[in-house]
Design brief:
Elements lengths: L11 E7 L8 E6 L2 E7 L5 E4 L15 E3 L2 E3 L6 E3 L5 E3 L17 E4 L2 E6 L21 E11 L3 H6 L4 H6 L5 E9 L2 E8 L8 H4 L3 E7 L3 E7 L4 E11 L2 E11 L4 H24 L15 H8 L14
């Protein structure tokens, strides 16, 4: 039996690089969506993503390819490809360009600390972009750190955790007074009120009185924490291959918060997050789960997430 019987690559925007890890002139080979692509930053600062193999004799553009303006030049025979369109713009030894001289190019959107590419199973063009986290332009916020994990799971499984109110206490020690999940189009908002007066409480929850999150699409989440600690966590998911997932986080603290509190919060935030990983690595996805009273809104969540599949999974719920 397939452990996670979901389409492996939902439609949407997927992170291919941290923005601050792709300098002008950099060329990176990225493994994503069961394939490779080459990501580079042009001389004007714009990021591009193209298929990796030269249309000529198949040399890999990520192995010795070099950036020239907003193009990438093949290391083998010098064919040059436009980053935005993938079309060949020049060949050193002829002015006559073959009509089919091109490589595949990917729509790119950059914001929130990441470079994203658009994937759609049917080749549809982008009709939305992730929400912009406006606080990241505020000099009051600073990057505290980054973290990444590679696990055996699927983006939908990770995102579903956000509406699983019962696991916040049993696994993480967060006593939530309430949870409010509101879907709207390609995004949803989630608010968790933490019982700051609870005797049994995790170290992370002790520094947060409320937690607001929003999710844009199948892979991007921003979590805002308020209380003794003011900060932001940016989370992205990258499906590398079926049931192979790269998770990347960026953490921002606010300068008005005691640095010791920021350090303690994000150190514990990471520890809390890592409690889920052994479960995600081993759990079975149940298309027909048995739901108990006071569980989270799994059914509504799964119906919302199904919009990112070209062919939605058929699911029902057992009471």
């Amino acid at each position: 039996m397939q452990r996670i019987p979901l389409p492996p690559y939902p439609n949407g925007w997927w992170a291919v690089s941290h923005s601050d890890e792709l300098a002008v002139g950099d060329v990176k080979t990225v493994h994503i969506l069961g394939r490779e692509m080459v990501v580079f930053r042009g001389s004007g600062g714009q990021a591009f993503a193209v298929d990796p193999y030269c249309a000529h004799l198949g040399a890999h553009l990520g192995v010795g390819g070099r950036v020239e303006g907003d193009t990438i030049r093949c290391p083998f025979h010098g064919w040059c490809y436009d980053g935005a369109t993938g079309k060949c713009t020049s060949i050193p030894y002829t002015d006559k360009l073959p009509p089919k001289a091109a490589v595949g190019s990917w729509p790119v959107w950059e914001n929130n600390g990441f470079v994203f590419v658009w994937h759609h199973a049917e080749g549809n063009e982008p009709d939305w972009t992730p929400d912009v986290v406006e606080e990241l332009a505020d000099p009051g916020y600073y990057l505290w750190g980054k973290k990444e994990w590679r696990i055996a799971s699927h983006p939908q499984e990770i995102m579903e955790n956000g509406v699983d109110i019962q696991h916040f206490f049993t696994l993480h020690g967060w006593k939530a007074k309430s949870i409010d999940w509101q879907p709207a189009g390609h995004r949803y908002t989630l608010r968790i009120d933490v019982d700051s007066g609870a005797e049994e409480q995790s170290a992370t929850a002790a520094n947060a009185t409320d937690v607001d999150s929003f999710n844009s699409g199948p892979s991007f989440t921003c979590t805002r924490v308020r209380g003794p600690m003011t900060g932001i966590a940016i989370n992205v998911l990258v499906p590398v291959a079926p049931e192979q997932l790269l998770i990347q986080h960026r953490y921002y603290g606010h300068r008005n918060t005691d640095p010791a509190i920021v350090d303690a919060f994000f150190t514990n935030y990471i520890r809390d997050y890592e409690l889920d990983i052994p479960i995600w690595n081993a759990k079975l996805y149940r298309p027909i789960p048995v739901i108990a009273e006071n569980d989270g809104p799994y059914v509504r969540y799964r119906r919302w997430y199904a919009q990112f599949y070209s062919k939605a999974p058929q699911e029902t719920v057992a009471a």
